[in-house]
Amino acid sequence: xxxxxxxxxxxxxxxxxxxxxxxxxxxxxxxxxxxxxxxxxxxxxxxxxxxxxxxxxxxxxxxxxxxxxxxxxxxxxxxxxxxxxxxxxxxxxxxxxxxxxxxxxxxxxxxxxxxxxxxxxxxxxxxxxxxxxxxxxxxxxxxxxxxxxxxxxxxxxxxxxxxxxxxxxxxxxxxxxxxxxxxxxxxxxxxxxxxxxxxxxxxxxxxxxxxxxxxxxxxxxxxxxxxxxxxxxxxxxxxxxxxxxxxxxxxxxxxxxxxxxxxxxxxxxxxxxxxxxxxxxxxxxxxxxxxxxxxxxxxxxxxxxxxxxxxxxxxxxxxxxxxxxxx
Length: 327
Hints:
Layout: H1 24-35, H2 38-58, H3 67-78, H4 83-99, H5 109-122, H6 134-143, H7 148-163, H8 167-171, E1 178-180, E2 186-190, E3 202-206, H9 208-221, E4 230-232, E5 238-241, H10 246-257, H11 262-266, H12 272-283, H13 288-295, H14 301-306, H15 308-311, H16 316-323
Antiparallel strand pairs: 1-2, 2-3, 4-5
Helix pairs in contact: 1-2, 2-4, 3-4, 3-5, 6-10, 7-9, 7-12
């Protein structure tokens, strides 16, 4: 990937001007893509490409940049991108600057003020993807057809829900990662994840009903080893590994076939099965530490976001209302 970017590779103090183009950001983007797992690494590469192209168009040095340049980039992107996307851009820019010993640039007061301006005008709240909770999961599974691709989709959704998988984790699974235990239950080795970039691996649970769907998919698809979930061509021939970007499209197609409202379909993402499982756990009263373990989260922030409408029912105000007998 070539990223057009005016750069300073001398290490001199940052200032806007006209140093010749170089490949420093491109190299950092490649390094980040290799060191950071899955979709996050790809996002860093993409984000740095957007930042470098903007700097080139504005005649500003991308790396190391002066705080005014990064602040101006935030202001420009705030008008055309969602606040969450701009914050992600900024996190990627921070990675690049730390790599060249200029980590203070993104943390500067000027950049913080630019973020504050964006949040004051656009707000901070992110749009929450729609969770594929148990009733929706069952509805999608039941509505799927009898083609080979339908068998794959059922198995994909069922395993994603049980194991609370991110889309990149689903598509990187190997046949050898899934083992059936005594009693029909299964265990799944997630070799690498967003929170396990070094690949120590984590074991998660898969239910017997999901294992039956996997066995049917493997039998009909003739899948003995290699990637568990594969792409299929229009003729139904099994191909290579399923691209991560296809997961959301699969869920959306299944939802349309099941007759879900288009507003729900549009809200589905590659993480919707993971979100739905977390919401079901919260609704069932499962304790937070167990939910964190099942979803392999390091903090409570995402669980609280996924389940905020459910968790508020356990708030002090809701408990007081119940004690008061209010109806």
